[in-house]
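To illustrate the input format used throughout this study, we show a single complete record. The first block contains the structure-token representation of the backbone; no residue identities are included at this stage. The design step must infer an amino acid for every position from geometry alone.
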């Protein structure tokens, strides 16, 4: 294991769309390829000696799991959404873990990598559970959307104008496995945690931990994880190079730097896409306000440039 600098920790949030891009019906081979292609910033940070914790999304993948459930329900009992979140955290974690290990080996970096299946504590009274807004899965035809709605499933039109399924997405409050994650990260192990935003759970007075059928936003979970790890950096990697002012208009322009207060005011004014950039900005603001650390939102390939102030949008106090 290489020597890493104490207290120099970054949490990296990697979108599920990076592994399964919109408009592509990705096979597992495709997703392994996309995973390998997405790891440049992580290897770069590892080579600079950062302690690292990786959080990945699972929106496309957990939506596919629901489709498999529906197709096979006449033959085998369907699995609840919370269990499907755990399932995708396992197999996506495997892809990311194996791909990081191979990339590190090629670069001559001796660091261990591990996946921790992570439970994230939520409030069962969170209004988001009764107001589904979290997009999962791929775009579906209008006829299929109407069929799903008739069966009691929620469907909305996303920022690209396509029909997609939506589910409840409660706010993450705490990372249940934070103790073991913190210990591993401090020892220089690269940890993949809170996959898909983590498995939503709550503490029942009699039964103990119980699962919730929902999906937690991976950026918000990454912000909670970064706070609890006392990380100095939250790096949110997405498919645009920065946060933009006047997005979608002729006058659109990238914003290099925002204070947490400025970002919150812009969000309150509806400046960011509700199903796309807004959750990332909110996650960054929550992290910055609670820790005083630095959050960066940038495009996947610009990760290391952004860390050194040459790309992306930095949100700081």
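Output of the design step:
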């Amino acid at each position: 294991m290489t020597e890493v600098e104490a207290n120099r920790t970054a949490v990296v949030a990697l979108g599920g769309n990076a592994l399964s891009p919109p408009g592509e019906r990705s096979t597992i081979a495709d997703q392994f390829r996309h995973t390998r292609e997405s790891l440049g910033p992580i290897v770069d940070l590892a080579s600079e000696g950062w302690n690292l914790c990786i959080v990945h999304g699972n929106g496309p993948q957990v939506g596919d799991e629901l489709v498999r459930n529906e197709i096979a329900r006449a033959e085998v009992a369907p699995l609840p959404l919370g269990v499907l979140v755990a399932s995708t955290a396992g197999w996506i974690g495997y892809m990311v873990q194996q791909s990081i290990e191979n990339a590190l080996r090629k670069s001559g970096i001796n660091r261990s990598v591990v996946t921790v299946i992570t439970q994230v504590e939520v409030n069962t009274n969170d209004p988001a559970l009764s107001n589904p807004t979290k997009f999962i899965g791929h775009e579906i035809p209008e006829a299929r959307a109407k069929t799903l709605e008739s069966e009691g499933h929620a469907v909305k039109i996303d920022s690209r104008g396509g029909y997609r399924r939506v589910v409840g997405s409660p706010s993450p409050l705490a990372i249940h496995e934070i103790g073991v994650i913190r210990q591993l990260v401090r020892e220089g192990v690269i940890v993949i945690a809170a996959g898909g935003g983590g498995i939503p759970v709550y503490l029942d007075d009699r039964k103990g931990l119980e699962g919730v059928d929902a999906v937690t936003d991976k950026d918000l979970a990454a912000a909670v994880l970064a706070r609890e790890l006392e990380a100095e950096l939250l790096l949110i990697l997405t498919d645009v190079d920065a946060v933009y002012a006047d997005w979608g208009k002729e006058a659109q322009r990238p914003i290099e730097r925002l204070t947490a207060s400025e970002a919150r005011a812009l969000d309150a004014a509806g400046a960011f896409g509700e199903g796309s950039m807004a959750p990332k900005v909110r996650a960054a603001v929550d992290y910055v306000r609670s820790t005083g650390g630095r959050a960066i939102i940038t495009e996947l390939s610009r990760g290391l440039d952004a860390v050194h102030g040459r790309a992306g949008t930095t949100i700081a106090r």
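Structural context for interpreting the output: The domain at 9-231 is CATH 3.40.1160.10 (Carbamate kinase). The chain has one domain: 9-231.
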